[in-house]
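Weekly structure sync, notes
Attendees: PL (lead), two postdocs, one rotation student
Agenda item 3: pending single-chain targets
PL asked that the sequence for the first pending target be pasted directly into the notes so everyone works from the same version. It is reproduced below exactly as submitted, 111 residues in total.
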Amino acid sequence: MTALPLNSVVATSYKTSDGDLFIKGFAVPGDRGNVAKVQVTLDDGKSWHDAEIIYQEGRWSWTLWEAKLPCDTDSGIVRSCATDTTGNEQPREGIWNVRGVAYNGWGVGKW
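Predicted structure, written out during the meeting:
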C-alpha cells in the first residue's frame, strides 16, 4: 500500500443558536489527485450541498472543510463525500477488510 484512498470524515456537527446545522471535517486525497471538493447531505444522498474548503496546502495535505446548512430537525445524520481533481468520487460504501485499513465509505456524523 503506497497511498490511502480518497476519503472524507465528518468530525463534528451541531445545531447553532440560529437553528442552522454547522458541520466540520477533513478529507485526504487518494493517489489520483488532490481533493477538489467535499459535499454533505442530510437526506442520505438525495441532495448534496458544497462544503467550503478552509485549508489545503499542497498535494499531500489534509483538506479541512466546513458547511452551515438550514436544518429544522433536532437530530439526524449527515454524510460527506469527497471528489478529487480527476473526478474520482469517494464511494458510499468502502471495501471491508479485517483490520479496517483504508476504509473510505462516506463520512457519517450525527447531531
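Discussion points:
- The chain has no helices and eight strands.
- The radius of gyration is 14 Å.
Action: rotation student to compare against the earlier draft before next sync.
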